[in-house]
Amino acid sequence: MSWLEISKFLNEKLSLEYVKNELVKTAYGTEENLLTKLDPRVLLIWYCYFAIVPWFIHSHVVLIGYLLFMLFLTYRAKVSPLILGVMGLGLLGEMLILFIISLLFGGDLETVLPMVWLCIKLGGISLASVAVFTSINPEKFSDALLRLGFPAQFSFSVAYAYRILPTLLEEFQQIILSYRLRGLAPEKSGLFYWRKIVYFLIVFIRSFYPLILNSAKRSRTTVEALETKGFTYGANNLQMIKLKTGYLKLTYNDYAFTMISIFYLIIVHALHYVL
Amino acid sequence: MHKPLIDIRNVSFAYPGNETRVLDGANLQVFEGDFLAIVGGNGSGKSTLCKTMNGLIPRFYVGEFEGEVITDGMDTSVHDVAALSQSIGYVYQDFENQLLRPTVKEDASFVPLNYGLPDFMERGEWALQVTGLAHLKNEFVWQLSGGQKHLLALAGAIAMRPKILIVDEPIAQLDPQHAIQIYDVLKILNEQYGTTIIVIEHHTEFIAKYCKQVVLMDHGRVFWKKAVREALCSVEDLMERQIYPPQVTQAAHYLNLDHYPITLEEAVACFEGRTLSEIHSPKTILKGSTPKLSLKNTSVQYKTLGKKVKKALINISVDFLEGDQVALVGNNGAGKSTLLKLLTGIVKPTEGSLELLGKPLRKITPEELSSHIAYVFQNPEEMFIEDSVRKEIEYYLKVRKIENYGELVDRIMDDFDLTDFQHQDARLMSGGQQRRVSLAIGAAMRPSVIILDEPTANLDIATKSKVVMMLEQLKKHVDTIIIATHDMQLVAEWANRMIVMHAGEVLMDDTTDAIFQQRETLTQAGLVPPQIIALCNELNFPHCTTVEEFAKCWKGAAKRGELVGN
């Protein structure tokens, strides 16, 4: 690949447009996979276990067992490469920072080892989150919460946060443009484009403020519209919850998935004593 | 007479923390089957009055409320908004922020779902059918075009089959075809389903064509409620409050006719059978001199989500000269916005080149082009990146470390009448003021070319006429002005040259006068000329761009005894 192609490729992958599409695809992805066939309530409870319990586990065998399970599920859930990339960068970055800090306190290469285990633990948890949230679209997530007894206001906020995301990103893009259309880009790129990168980072960060102010201002219509659309009425109405979440039903798949997960957990924890 | 559906009695209201009464003893009765337009100047209390009808006032906005409102037999100070909303639907002007659900289908059925109706899906689907969105039901709302979002907001409000539907400025941001589409839906609702419809509307031509009654608001009171013909013919009452009746009605009023037409068809019948001679000196196209900015055989295409290649612009070649006042027109999707993005460096041409003062540009980025070209967005809010008007205007000069920029900023603020507001946050100003700030920001960039996207969108007529004055101010600061717009009246009054876009190509590039007389081109591009021009076209009269011109032409002919016929 020539330099030109690489820069073109990077340009395409780093554009906000790409990020927006990936996010929407991840959130509302309609592709069927192993996990989408499950009842979101089961997935949520399942996730609660795998997001909390690993923190209290120190057995290397069990942690690896968990990680392998999550790797399998992530693979089956067809998680977007962007999300995996961001996650990987986060994990590596975290390790690097911790390593540098440990160096300051007289650590050496040996300190890396416990960090690898931490990383495996974090990796397992993150992959569980990614796999689950790729497979539950926000609507199902919100319905599951509603059915599990969370207040309607809360479950609606979850769904609305996702719905407004593409709109916000679009506006964000527009505000960045405002900066660029009146701004002054550095004339020289500098070593490794550092000047350009700093310029864009600053624009990027500063664009958040107008975005927040504008959205705050416009939320008035949203709140009024909620009121005129009978939302508060529905929030106190059991009939609405029944109608809305009536499609959530436990099936054979859910029982099978739960049993297999429990079975796998028993094996992994047993292995800890065997090995 | 039968009982009114909405009965507003002596209502006064002041928003909390504000002394002035937005409503001051308003009285109004609305009957079943009405198709009512509410007109009035800025701050006359139109929206506030509508919000008393569904109980948003006083239940949601707790201010100083007096009087009584009975909607569909319910007292709004006793029943809550949710109960009232079952019989009254409300569509906001800001349509984007009232779409609350991710997909079209879910948004349309949201209200009946909230009220726990088992057939909520069918109701949603019915609403989509009526609004013509049925084929889009599985789409995500952010994939819709502006016109479609508008229709969806409407669908969401009618899914409950409310007895009353209130629509706040339904067509403020739409091209003529979408505007007609919206009103056709309202008409169907009114005539076939018996829905009582209340619109807040500035466009009197639409009122004449679709509405049955008109309410004129003034200083928080209902000045009168009249049948549509009588209302629109009360030209003086309306004009005093900066509301302009249809141009043909104005023309008849200028000429002191005994009987005023309110639609184009009536006007044709009224003025028919005469011949007039030319008095208009046609606008000409500037020639010579090196173009300030030009496009040479440029095309733009991009990949859509499904990896398909979409051609947004096809082989465009245009020159923009010094002194040009260009209007860029065409329907949504014709390629206007891509062309604007191309001229400002936001989009790069796939083929062809962009030339500044005859030299091809090698590096095309927004920052690079901003030294020559300023771009003023359709939505001023998206241009605001600082916390005061002054800082907004000086941003460009400051980052370039221009010497003594303060003086220039002072002068520009003076020209645009902003000196008094210079320390306010632009986001909190009124629509017209925000527009002035956005133009001042553009002027402060001291560009050679300034590009304005829909400068009159979302403004009431009084503020609109000020925009034309502001454009005159702008001329002092720049060489060339390019405006992309749906507002044909602005085009007729201001532009000397018009570029008509259609399906990614330039359909025509000529003087405004010439293009407005080409009926076929106009139809092909989906454009509707201002009524007075359409009238002259229909009757083969000489071309008149304004009502005044028409009146002058007519009176002149009468004086010379040329008014043959009658």
Task: Give me the secondary-structure topology.
The complex is a heterodimer of chains A (275) and B (566).
Chain A lengths: L2 H12 L1 H13 L11 H13 L7 H17 L4 H24 L7 H24 L2 H10 L4 H31 L11 H13 L1 H21 L2 H5 L2 H8 L6 H23 L1
Helix pairs in contact in A: 2-8, 3-6, 4-6, 4-13, 5-6, 7-8, 7-12, 8-10
Chain B lengths: L5 E9 L8 E8 L4 E6 L5 H8 L2 H5 L3 E8 L2 E2 L5 H4 L3 E4 L12 H5 L1 H5 L5 H12 L14 H13 L5 E5 L7 H17 L3 E5 L3 H7 L2 E6 L2 E7 H6 L1 H6 L6 H8 L9 H8 L21 E11 L5 E12 L4 E5 L6 H8 L7 E6 L2 E2 L5 H4 L3 E4 L12 H11 L5 H11 L15 H14 L4 E5 L7 H15 L4 E5 L3 H7 L2 E6 L2 E7 H5 L2 H6 L6 H9 L7 H13 L7
Parallel strand pairs in B: 3-8, 3-9, 6-7, 7-8, 13-18, 13-19, 16-17, 17-18
Antiparallel strand pairs in B: 1-2, 1-4, 4-5, 9-10, 11-12, 11-14, 14-15, 19-20
Helix pairs in contact in B: 6-7, 12-24, 13-23, 16-17, 16-18, 18-19
Could you please describe the fold and organization of this structure?
The complex is a heterodimer of chains A (275) and B (566). Chain A is mainly alpha-helical and 275 residues long. Chain A folds into two domains: 16-136 and 249-275, no CATH class; 139-236, no CATH class. Chain A is built from 13 helices and no strands. Chain A has helices at 3-14, 16-28, 40-52, 60-76, 81-104, 112-135, 138-147, 152-182, 194-206, 208-228, 231-235, 238-245, 252-274. The longest helix of chain A has 31 residues, at 152-182. The model of chain A has no long low-confidence stretch (mean pLDDT 85). In chain B, the strands form four sheets. In chain B, strands 6-7-8-3-9-10 form a six-stranded mixed sheet, with helices on both faces. Chain B has a six-stranded mixed sheet with strand order 16-17-18-13-19-20, with helices on both faces. In chain B, helix 16 runs parallel beside helix 18 (431-444). Chain B has three domains: 6-242, Rossmann fold (3-Layer(aba) Sandwich); 246-280 and 542-566, no CATH class; 293-529, P-loop containing nucleotide triphosphate hydrolases (Rossmann fold). The mean pLDDT of chain B is 88. Chain B has 566 residues and is an alpha/beta fold. In chain B, strand 1 (6-14) and strand 2 form a beta hairpin. At the A-B interface, helix 2, helix 8, helix 10, helix 11 and helix 12 of A face helix 3, helix 5, helix 15 and helix 16 of B.
